[in-house]
Design a protein that fits this description.
By secondary structure, the chain is an alpha+beta fold. The protein is 60% helix and 13% strand. The chain has eleven helices and 14 strands. It has helices at 19-35, 41-54, 69-99, 103-134, 150-165, 171-183, 203-228, 240-274, 289-305, 314-324, 350-354, and strands at residues 2-4, 13-15, 56-58, 61-65, 136-138, 141-144, 187-188, 191-195, 233-234, 237-238, 276-278, 281-285, 326-329, 331-333. Strands 2-3-4-5-6-7-8-11-12-13 form a ten-stranded antiparallel sheet. A hairpin with a 2-residue loop joins strand 7 (187-188) and strand 8 (191-195). The protein is globular.
């Protein structure tokens, strides 16, 4: 049996949920998280995902989420115990070593711990994707990966350090290479994911992002020079030039830089989807910068208007946004799509939760 992705107007990927249907889930999740002092958030995440997955149709069949709050909670406890030495060092040993005049030793250990945390952040990204695929079912088939993510953590650390040494000029090449590496080790059923994402076409947008902070630094330098020279005061009153420079700096930092960064990521996500495939299936994503901006501003406004309760809808809105802009093209032979033989991890995504890595 072969399933074909329908024409674009029929949408091979659809989200059928609505906010009224989701409201009772959000309300009870918030209440139980408050009553349990945050412990219920793992079960809340499982409830949310079960609903979102069940309202997502892929080529006529709904997704299923099989993850549980218990396994996410246990995963978090394991990782918390793993990270306990880091916490104890930063909280007690580091200030004690400084107080005893062992600044060099304290700094060396601090650097090693920082590198270790960066490495574990990369492992967390890989294992979060692996776990979510392993708990996502479609027509009785699930995804996953046999790789534990330790090698990816090393690659993540190396590329991040390279990006730092280049003062983030190499960021597009780092981001695209890591996306390829992560997804090329994933599969769904018997079909492997394949990504051919490259930085070509993303460099110009990143250059615009990169130049904005430099422009801000130039404005700060000009402002400092003029103030020290007394050129921005007129008889004890601030010169109009001062307001112009400060206003330009404010707009640059709080408006232009965020918008340019959003502009880059909008194209990055489109390119990432366009170059990703699963067997003969190809993906697409059509969200523009303006549509991303409306999503973020809508989330912010919702949280403010509802005095914080709207935060419970952010996951719903983000998932619906991604699904509604996702496209699928090609054919898949369901008969030949065998069940995945990859390892289904039982430790959930404790690393990702500890490092606050979201689903998108």
């Amino acid at each position: 049996m072969t399933s074909s992705a329908p024409p674009a107007q029929e949408r091979a990927v659809r989200f059928t949920g609505n906010w009224r249907e989701y409201l009772p889930i959000a309300a009870t999740n918030v209440l139980l998280i408050i009553v349990t002092l945050g412990v219920y958030r793992f079960w809340a995440a499982a409830r949310q995902r079960r609903y979102l997955w069940s309202r997502t149709e892929v080529i006529g069949d709904r997704l299923e989420w099989s993850g549980t709050g218990k396994e996410m909670f246990i995963g978090f406890l394991i990782v918390s115990a793993f990270l306990l030495p880091f916490f104890l060092f930063f909280q007690f040993l580091f200030p004690a070593m400084i107080a005893r005049g062992k600044e060099a030793a304290a700094g060396g250990i601090f650097l090693l711990f920082e590198v270790a945390l960066l490495y574990l952040g990369g492992v967390a990204r890989f294992r979060a994707l692996r776990y979510r695929l392993s708990r996502t079912w479609w027509r009785g088939i699930r995804g996953g990966s046999d790789e534990p993510g330790w090698n990816y953590g090393g690659e993540y650390l190396g590329r991040l350090i390279l990006a730092m040494f280049t003062m983030w000029i190499a960021w597009p090449w780092m981001a695209t290479a890591l996306f390829r590496s992560r997804w090329n080790q994933m599969s769904f059923g018997s079909l492997p994911f394949r990504s051919q994402l490259v930085a070509e076409g993303l460099g110009r947008r990143w250059a615009a992002v990169y130049l904005m902070p430099l422009a801000a630094l130039v404005l700060v330098a000009i402002l400092a020079g003029l103030i020290s020279a007394g050129a921005l005061s007129d008889g004890g009153k601030a010169s109009p030039t001062l307001f112009v420079i400060v206003g330009s700096l404010f707009l640059l930092v709080y408006l232009v830089i965020p918008l340019m960064t959003l502009h880059w990521y909008a194209k990055y996500y489109r390119r990432a989807a366009e170059t990703l495939s699963l067997g003969d299936l190809e993906f697409g994503f059509d969200a523009t910068t303006w549509q991303w901006l409306k999503l973020f501003l809508g989330n912010l406004l919702l949280a403010v208007v509802t005095l914080g309760f709207g935060l419970a809808f952010w996951g719903y809105r983000n998932w619906a946004f991604m699904v509604r802009h996702m496209h699928l093209y090609g054919e898949i032979n369901v008969t030949d799509l065998a069940q995945s033989t990859t390892h289904a991890p039982g430790e959930a995504e404790g690393f990702a939760d500890a490092f606050d890595i979201g689903a998108i």
